[in-house]
Design brief:
Layout (H helix, E strand, L loop, with lengths): L1 E6 L7 H15 L3 E6 L24 H11 L4 H12 L2 E7 L7 H10 L29 E7 L16 H14 L4 E2 L3 E3 L10 H12 L13 H5 L27
Parallel strand pairs: 1-2, 1-3, 3-4, 4-5, 4-6
Helix pairs in contact: 1-6
Length: 260
């Protein structure tokens, strides 16, 4: 298996840094090829601008259209092209990051903004009366798996269905469904460590054991059964879930998770 780890934490000696290193050593020991994009160490540029698209940037700038034209022409900046090539190389992509203000760190969002360009991560496939592009289960990254490994400062009860912060599955839905499932990745249930602000060195071995065990099941863990857009569950072009497909009592984000 070929695994890309995208790591987003500014401190190499942090818990996130340790989990990233443990993932590398565990997977390599199991015979896997591993590449790492350590965004802070790479001094990753997090903002989209005209420089990303070189001669294909328009004035005024139109990021979606310009990014697609630059992708087609091969004129995206070398750092962006390198990350796209890593994604195409990988069988599995692990995202290692802390949950900051209910989402990913800005540098990781900037990686998505710049790397997931038009004609690469979106804007691909047929648009017709029966198909609305290749996305949500289809697309450039179909056939690959993704896993979020997330550290959370608060207690697990804070992120339970009745917790004040909201259910963790809801908080991660925009990332898992909207960013990863959209271009075709199969998304594995996340690995979440709670209460990390209170963790001590004595607590780490238990967390490391759980992470190591999870890493060794990457190939056998069933993905979250997100519904696929073009396979009969949605009306086209409205993209509304068809009547009668919703599980009893389920609303909101949960409508888009099947029962497989």
């Amino acid at each position: 298996m070929k695994t890309l780890i995208v790591h987003a934490h500014p401190e190499p000696r942090s818990l996130n840094g340790s989990l990233k290193d443990l993932a590398v050593s565990t997977l390599e020991a199991a015979g896997h090829e591993v590449r790492v994009s350590d965004l802070y160490a790479m001094n990753w540029k997090a903002t989209v601008d005209a420089a990303d698209y070189g001669p294909d940037a328009s004035d005024p700038l139109r990021p979606a259209r310009d990014s697609g034209r630059a992708f087609d022409a091969g004129t995206l900046t070398p750092d962006v092209r390198a990350e796209q090539e890593k994604l195409l190389w990988a069988d599995t992509v692990i995202f290692q990051f802390p949950l900051w203000w209910y989402t990913m760190p800005a540098i990781l969002k900037g990686w998505v903004d710049r790397v997931f360009t038009f004609h690469f991560a979106y804007g691909v496939g047929e648009h017709s009366d029966t198909k609305y592009g290749e996305r949500y289960g289809e697309g450039t990254l179909a056939g690959r798996r993704a896993l979020l490994s997330v550290t959370v400062g608060g207690l697990e009860s804070h992120y339970a269905p009745r917790g004040i912060n909201g259910p963790i599955d809801d908080l991660l839905f925009p990332i898992q469904h909207g960013i990863l499932h959209y271009p075709g990745l199969e998304v594995l249930p996340p690995f979440v460590l709670y209460g990390t602000d209170r963790m001590t060195d004595a607590d780490y071995p238990e967390a490391a054991k759980a992470w190591r065990e999870r890493l060794l099941t990457l190939e056998t863990t069933a993905p979250v059964p997100y519904r696929r857009q073009n396979f009969g569950d949605y009306e086209i072009p409205s993209l509304h879930l068809k009547e009668g497909l919703e599980p009893a009592g389920r609303t909101g984000f949960g409508l888009h998770v099947g029962t497989d």
